[in-house]
Design a protein that fits this description.
single chain; 96 residues; alpha+beta; Alpha-Beta Plaits; 3 helices; 4 strands; globular
Length: 96
């Protein structure tokens, strides 16, 4: 069964950090076969702080967890956390 990161985030406040995250994320995403899906912001029907919703799809739940725990992702994650506020859920299923 597939695995996903569901990311709820605020608007980007540090564009340089966001660009660095993108640069660091590219090879990691390729290594884990991750596919980014930007979700319709209208899906956030009850949110106090989030303005963006993203899903990152992996071939398996194990891959989703392994990617997040990968030391190579730690540096990228630090840039993401500098760029904007976010909450991340790692789930198993098939979002279609």
């Amino acid at each position: 069964m597939k695995g996903y990161w569901i990311i709820l985030g605020s608007a980007v406040s540090d564009t340089e950090a966001q660009q660095e995250y993108g640069r660091l994320w590219g090879p990691i995403a390729e290594q884990y076969g991750a596919k980014l899906k930007v979700l319709d912001p209208a899906a956030l029907v009850e949110s106090h702080t989030s303005t963006r919703a993203l899903a990152v799809e992996f071939d398996s739940y194990a891959q989703a967890k392994a990617c997040y725990a990968d030391p190579a992702y730690a540096e990228a994650k630090a840039m993401a956390l500098r760029a904007y506020r976010r909450e991340v859920l790692i789930i198993e299923g098939d979002l279609g």
